[in-house]
Amino acid sequence: MKFVDDLNIRGKILVPTISLAAIALTVAGVLAWALNETSSRYRDVISGPVLAAKISSDYAGQLSELGRVINLALLQGDADLQKLGHDLEELKAARKESREQLERLFPDKPEVRGLKASGTQINEAQDALLVKARGEGKVVSVPEPAPQPVVRRGAARKREPRAEAVPEAARARAAVAVSVPEPVKRPSEVARFWAESGRPALAKQRATLNALSDELDATASAATQKLNERTRLTMILLVGISLALILMVVVFAILTINSSVVAPITLLTSKTVLLSRGDDNFELPEVDRKDEFGALARALEVFKNNADKIRAMSVAEAVTKEIGGVITAAANKDFSSEVDLRNKEGFLKEIGGAVNNLLYICRGAFKDFSDKATQTAISVDEAGTAVAQISDGARLQTTQLMQVSTALSESSKAIKIVTSNASSAREKAEAAAQAVDQGQLAVAQLEPIVEAISQNSRKINQITQVIAQIANRTHILSLNAAIEAARAGEHGKGFVVVAQEVGKLAESSAQNAKQITDIVEQASSDAQQGKVATSTVSQSMKAIAQGTLETTERVRTIAVAMDEQQATISEIEGSVGHLRTIAHSNSSAAEEITATMVQLSKLSNDTRQRLLAFKTE
Amino acid sequence: MSARASADAATALTDVQRLAGVARDRIGLKPDLSTPKIEALLRAIPADERPARCRELIASEPDASRWRDFIEALLVHETYFFRHPVQLRLLADVVLPRLLQDRLDAGSRELRIWCAGCASGEEVYTLALLVQTALAASARTWSVTILGTDLSAGSLALARAGSYALVAGLNSFRDVPAFARHHFAAIFTTAATTWSAGPELRRWTRFAHHNLATDPPPLRDVDLVVCRNTLIYFDDAHSRSALTSLEAALRPSGALLLGPAETVSESSGLRMVCTEQTVLWMKDASP
Q: ipTM more than 0.90?
């Protein structure tokens, strides 16, 4: 079996297949040869008896023909016999030839040797018959049953058609002959002769031939039987041997394939399965084989030698899946899961550690981003608020600067007014000082005037008393006049009015006088007071004159200061104008910054929202 | 007395809110931003006139002079030459040459730029100066249109005048980067206090009144749309509709510049082009 093991799988399958084909071809060849052999032997065995049977049959036919011809001639008459001479000679030659053939075929058979003697007897009878027929010239028929044709199934088949036709015709004629009425003619001598010498010989020979033919048929049949037996035996033998061979080859092939293909495959498969699980606890003797299994085993041996790596790989697959799950979770924004490092070792632990570290960093970073974004959002928001306040402040500043500017402008105007007022005040103060001086003089002049007024007042008092008395009298007069006018009646009516008016006038004059008295008295007392006051005023005037001098000096100083002030204020006004422009542009810039901050805050909040989508805890 | 005062305050507050709501509906202003300004404006008039003033403003037509004055006070006209220079640098170095090449490839020599919310026009002239530099000698063969639009009539008048003074404080020249200072040599190196746009710049630039919050785009097939620090004043809804309008104006592969705090919606057909310090957007090439 060693060489079988060394064959490759193709060889293992080809060897039984080719063996089967070879056996089939051999069996076919042997079968063909055996059949051919049987056929030729059959020919050898059968041809002799068959030929002999044929000759025997022909021979018998010739004898029948002879009998029939002679019988016919005897029945027909003498003349015909002579005509038959030629035909009978021909039959004689044919008989001779048949007999010689038989003698050649069966030189030792006594029956065949006997044929010559009886043949000679027939020939002599025949010749004698012809001679007698010529002598009498007449042939008298002898009633005789028609000769029975030699009909044997086995032999008849081998006969020539012509030879068979003869007894058929003879039979027909015999039938006719039978139906012919018994001849009235007396049997001639010829017929008698034939009946005595010819017919027995003919019958004897025919019997011999029939016996021979039967014997030959039996021989041929026996030979055929024997050959058939042999052929069947040969075939059974051949089929049996070939079946046995095929069975052997098939069994061998099955055993071979089973032991050297299926078994190693099964074994190697189970070992490969073991190995795929990382189990290298098995022997691998197949490596010494020279077929494919050797190669497979040697390849497997490489894996076996790397079994720890395979084990590691199968572990690695599970761990890689676990790590992949963690990474997938991270890709799905879940950074909270981690690789469990406790059940891992080697580089996988390192990878897991690295992934965990990455996740840790990512968590930290995202948390940081998120916190920063939150802080940014808050700080931007605060900054926005602050800038908005600044913006408000700037706006307020602008407004206030405008107000300041307006106020300054107003102040400037006011200062101008004050300045001009101050100069006019100075002028007025100077004028006042002069007026005071003049006043002092006037006051000095006033004192005698007041005295004079006082004295005049008394005189006026006296005058007013006189006027009052006049008024009183006038009043009385007017009353009298009114009485008189009433007396005068219709004509005094006008005068009544005059009197009344005079009365009124007197009354008012009295009142006026009274008032004048009061006034004058008042004026007198005033003049007295004025006298006192004038002296006071005179003293005050002196003080005012002194003060006015000082005031004038001060107003002059104020006017100078105001001039300077105004110059300063116009400068300030210019600066405030600039400030206003600056404040306005500041305000614009601040507002733009506010809007930007608000927008940034929104963006930052958006970013924060997106970062919050990452789960880090 | 105190009850009545707080009732007045409540009414006033409601009026301010309503007014801010009308401003939002008409010009897209964020109420958060407009409310303090409206309150400040109202503080300047006597308290008993405030409700009536609010009602007048709410009832006034959008083109009434009272309303125009009101929104003029609400608007912020913050702008200066070469603002956000990093973004402009990206525009000048990368985007503008590409936009010009697109046009040349299509067999056209027409460049269209729309500056939405241009305020007093500094940005429009800035863009014109960039285009002038980019086209250099071939400027004469090109048909350049730079349309500046704004809601403020006062700002548009300043923009059309095209003359800017070196005033104190945050002026138009406050932050001109080194690469652009040569355009304003007179300001920076001589005693000149005013810069005026040259004839080519004036030929290229146009200014028009446009309400970005509600009006359809004033220009189509635009190569470059610049709308910086305008959308920050808009509420979300108007910001979105304004962005739609800006995008609609752009030709395929056109560029959009926004302010640093502004961004497009994720559903738009605009792709972000990002460098380390700045971003801009390009419209998709397919029409």
A: no
